[in-house]
């Protein structure tokens, strides 16, 4: 936005069509719409997939000459560039032990290698704007040399380093925050007859007395051990609480059930009351403490599962009309709705013996067989919805992807929708 602000509006018809495509399929309040008006694009991993694909295509074909990127540029995205400009090596992620993550010398060398396109550019340039951010002159001299890191992420290494803390977490019965390894240990102790031997093979060792203390606290548990094995990285105590809850609540099974939004919100209310830390982990702390936000989340989740287009979901009154709220809602749908909410509720549905059709529809943002077939073949959700809506009279539910692609010429799909199929079909007018 800062780069685009001072620039004049473009009169490029290709960029104008891309701008209209983004505004129609996402929102007129989406920042990319404003940027494209000024010949600037951006690219990051949290963009809607159909927009990300369109931006990559526009850059590759020379329609878009300037693009601001996160590190997706070096993570398998083949965007040609004549010049690469790096502000500094900071990744602006959460600090680890007080240290802000930065690009390694190897990663910067990878980015540097994106400058200059084979058989098109005689010279490629990499420009670093804030060289002072690199720690020492000697480091800057060797900036582009490969580096090797030794990482020990084994259970055994983690357990040995934090043994007393992990033992305390594993034995404690009260509701407290536990690490993933502590939950794993408790699960193995609860479900496996030779728990000590199985843990020892992973480099985790307990004395006989410690094993008895851990298992002694689990005598009150009666949650099905086969379900605990299925959800191996869940704490058996949490699964016990969910099992008890599942007997008292009404779990909706389809996005088209009666009163489904309020029923789903009621489920989340009860889980939040019983296990606020668990809701915070999967959904975020704002949903653990705010019933109104939980209802909005459920409303959006049901719309997403019912195959409502993204543009319709973003247009509702409670989302707002600012670019920041638009970005927040996109993140909520793609992360919290499509991942966090199903991940939280799957064990509850399994323990309650309920079908999980609603949850699988949330994950995909689709329920119909044709759309699922398209999604499974890397067609973005929004493109799949447009395709199936226009092809409703032609397609059958059991059509294969090749049969579905045969309908493309008769549907009158726009240019930017057609490019989403280029990995599946030969479409000469977009090459």
Describe what this molecule looks like in 3D:
With 431 residues, this protein is mainly alpha-helical. The protein has 4 domains: 13-141, P-loop containing nucleotide triphosphate hydrolases (Rossmann fold, 3-Layer(aba) Sandwich), CATH 3.40.50; 155-233, no CATH class; 251-364, no CATH class; 371-430, no CATH class. It is built from 23 helices and 4 strands. The chain has helices spanning 13-25, 31-37, 49-60, 105-112, 137-141, 155-161, 163-171, 180-191, 195-200, 208-216, 225-230, 236-246, 260-274, 276-283, 285-289, 291-305, 310-314, 323-351, 357-364, 369-376, 381-390, 401-405, 415-418, and strands at residues 40-43, 66-69, 83-86, 125-128. Strands 1-2 form a two-stranded parallel ribbon. The chain has a two-stranded parallel ribbon with strand order 3-4. Helix 3 links the parallel strand 1 (40-43) and strand 2. Helix 20 (369-376) packs across helix 21 (381-390). The longest helix has 29 residues, at 323-351. The two termini are 30 Å apart. The relative contact order is 0.08.
Please give the structural blueprint:
Layout: H1 13-25, H2 31-37, E1 40-43, H3 49-60, E2 66-69, E3 83-86, H4 105-112, E4 125-128, H5 137-141, H6 155-161, H7 163-171, H8 180-191, H9 195-200, H10 208-216, H11 225-230, H12 236-246, H13 260-274, H14 276-283, H15 285-289, H16 291-305, H17 310-314, H18 323-351, H19 357-364, H20 369-376, H21 381-390, H22 401-405, H23 415-418
Parallel strand pairs: 1-2, 3-4
Helix pairs in contact: 1-2, 7-8, 12-18, 13-14, 13-16, 14-18, 16-18, 16-19, 18-19, 20-21
């Amino acid at each position: 936005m800062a780069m685009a602000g001072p620039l004049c509006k473009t009169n490029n018809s290709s960029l104008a069509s891309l701008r209209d495509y983004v505004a129609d399929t996402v929102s007129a309040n989406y920042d990319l719409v404003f940027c494209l008006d000024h010949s600037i694009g951006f690219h990051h991993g949290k963009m809607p997939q159909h927009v990300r694909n369109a931006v990559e295509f526009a850059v590759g074909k020379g329609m878009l000459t300037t693009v601001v990127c996160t590190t997706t540029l070096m993570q398998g995205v083949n965007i040609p560039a004549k010049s690469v400009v790096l502000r500094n090596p900071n990744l602006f992620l959460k600090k680890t032990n007080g240290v802000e993550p930065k690009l390694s010398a190897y990663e910067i060398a990878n980015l540097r290698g994106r400058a200059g396109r084979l058989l098109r550019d005689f010279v490629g340039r990499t420009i670093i704007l804030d060289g002072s951010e690199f720690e020492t002159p000697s480091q800057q001299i060797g900036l582009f040399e490969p580096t090797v890191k030794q990482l020990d992420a084994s259970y055994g290494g983690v357990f040995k380093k934090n043994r007393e803390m992990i033992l305390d977490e594993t034995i404690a019965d009260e509701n407290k925050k536990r690490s993933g390894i502590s939950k794993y240990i408790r699960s193995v102790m609860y479900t496996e007859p030779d728990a000590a031997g199985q843990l020892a093979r992973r480099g985790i060792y307990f004395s006989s007395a410690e094993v008895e203390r851990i298992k002694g606290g689990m005598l009150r548990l009666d949650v099905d051990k086969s379900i605990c094995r299925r959800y191996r990285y869940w704490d058996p105590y949490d699964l016990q609480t969910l099992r008890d809850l599942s007997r008292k609540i009404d779990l909706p099974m389809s996005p088209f059930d009666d009163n489904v939004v309020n029923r789903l919100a009621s489920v989340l209310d009860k889980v939040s009351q019983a296990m606020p830390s668990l809701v915070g982990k999967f959904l975020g702390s704002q949903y653990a403490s705010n019933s109104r936000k939980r209802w909005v989340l459920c409303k959006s989740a049901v719309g997403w599962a019912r195959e409502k287009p993204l543009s319709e979901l973003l247009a509702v009154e409670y989302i707002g009309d600012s670019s920041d709220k638009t970005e927040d809602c996109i993140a909520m749908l793609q992360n919290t709705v499509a991942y966090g909410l199903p991940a939280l509720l799957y064990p509850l549905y399994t323990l309650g013996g309920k079908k999980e059709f609603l949850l699988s529809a949330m994950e995909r943002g689709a329920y119909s067989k044709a759309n699922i077939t398209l999604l499974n073949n890397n067609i973005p959700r929004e493109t799949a919805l447009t395709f199936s809506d226009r092809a409703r009279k032609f397609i059958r539910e059991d059509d294969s992807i090749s049969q579905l692609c045969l309908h493309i010429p008769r549907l009158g799909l726009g240019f930017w929708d057609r490019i989403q199929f280029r990995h599946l079909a030969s479409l000469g007018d977009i090459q």
